[in-house]
Amino acid sequence: MTAAHYIGGRWVSGDSADCITVYDPSLGEPFAELTAATPSQVDQAIAAARQALPAWRNSSASQRAAYLKGFAEQIELRREALIALQMQNNGKPRHEAVVDIDDAIATFSYYAGLAERLDDLQDREVLLSVPGFTAHTRFEAVGVVGLIVPWNFPLVTSAWKLAPALATGCTVVIKPSEITPLIEQAYGHIADALGLPAGVLNIVGGKAETGAALSNHPGIDKLSFTGSNAVGSQVMSSSAAHCRPVTLELGGKSAILVFDDCDLDQAVEWIVAGICWNAGQMCSATSRLLVQDSIADALILRLKSAFEKLRLGNPLNGEVDMGPLTSQAQWSKVNTYFAIARTEGLQCVTGGDVLQDPGWFVQPTIYADVPPDSRLWTEEIFAPVLCTRRFASEAEALALANDSRFGLVATVVSADLVRAKRVADALDVGHVWINSVQAVFVETSWGGTKGSGIGRELGPWGLSAYQSVKHVTRCLG
Ligand code: NAD
Fold first, then answer.
1. Within-domain flag for 446
2. What predicted TM-score, i.e. pTM, was given to this entire model?
C-alpha cells in the first residue's frame, strides 16, 4: 500500500482496515488502492497543524504569498500528470481537465496577490466618532481549519479552500473524497518541494469515518465543507455542537431562463455547456431549463439534435465531448432517476437510459414539460439530465426559477439587456450569468443562498472566511 497521507510533513500509510479502491470510470476498473486514515491519524494531523500554527500565523503575509506563488508554479510543472490523472479517475475530457488545472493555478496566484497586501492592511487605525480613544483593526488567522471536499472538481474545490486558508495564516487538515483520493496528494508533494513548514498542510484520505473524525474533532477552529446536503447537515451539526464557524458549499438545482428574443443557436451552446460539462456532475449545473412559449418547440428540437451529437467516450482514447459519470454509485443513482421518470410518465425527448459496459456512461437526456412537483424537477440528479418547462411571462419565469430549496446559480439568456439585468437582480441565487457560459473568475464570489450553503468562496470573501477580525481600542486619557 502506498503512503497516501501527509501528516506533519511526512508521508504515511493508512492504519485503517478500510481499503479505498480507485477506479477508472471509463472502464469501470480499479487502477489503485490505498488504506484510509484512522481517526487516530486524523488526531495526529490536527496535532501537527496545531503545533505548526503559531509560527505560520506569525510569519509575514508576504512570506506566505511566496509559498502560494510556489504552489501555482508547481501545479504548472505537474500539469500533464494532473491532466492525465483527472482524465483517468474523474473521466474528464482533456479540455475540461485543462480548465481545472488553469483554475487551480489562477486561485493560488490570486490569493498570493491578496496575501501580499495583507501586511499593509494590518493595524490600520479606525476613525472613531468619540474623542479620547484610538482603535486599530487586526486580521488574524482563524486557526486550525478542517477542509472536506468532494470528487467532481477535486483539484479546484481544494484550491478554493487551501489557497485562502494558507494566505491568512491558518494551518489545514484536508480530507479528499474517497472517489478521487490521489489528486489532492499533489498538494502534499508540492508542499515537500517548496519546503513548506511541516504541519502547515496535512492530508488525510478516507471515507465518511475519516471525514466525521475531522468534522467532529474538538481540536479544529473551523470547518469548510463542500459536498452534499445530507453530509453538510451532519457537518453543520458537529460545528453547532462545538459552537464554531462553518462554511458550507452544497448542492443546487439551478435554472437557465431563455427568452424569445435570443439567438437560438447561441442559447443551445450555453444550455448544453450548463448541463453537460463534467457530465452534469456540477453543483452549478443548470438542470432546469425555462423557455418562453413561442420558442420552446424550436429550441427543444435544436437541443435534441445537439445532445445526440455529443461524442461520449473514454477521454484517454481521444478527444470526446463527455466522459462517464465518475462513480458506480452515481451511475446507479442516475439510473434510479431514469426509472422514476418512467414511473412519473415524463416526456423523454432524448436519452433516458444508462449505457451498459464498459464504464459508467449515461445518455445525455432531456425531459420536456416536467411538472414542478416531479422529483426530477426538484432534486439534484448530478448528471447530464435536463428538465424543461415553458413560461408565458417574465414573472412566471422568475417564480418558477426561484421555486427551489436551492439557490446556487442561474443563467439568463436574452437580447434585451435591461430585462436580463432586471431578472438577474430578482433571482434568489449566489451567482448569475447573462448570455454566457458558466465562466468562473477568482475575483468573483462562489456560494449559494437557501439550501445551497453558508458563506462564500473566492474573491476577498473567500479570504475573510479564514480571518478573524480583532479590534484593539485604547483610552487616551
Ligand atoms: P458527499 O457529501 O458525499 O461527500 C463530500 C465529502 O464529505 C467527501 O470527502 C466524503 O468522504 C465526506 N464525508 C462523507 N460522509 C461524511 C461525514 N459523515 N462527515 C464528514 N465528512 C463526510 O458529496 P459528494 O458526492 O462527494 O459530492 C457531490 C455533492 O457536492 C453534490 O451535492 C454537489 O452539488 C456538491 N458540490 C457543491 C459545490 C459547491 O460549490 N456548492 C461544489 C462541488 C460539489
1. no
2. 0.97
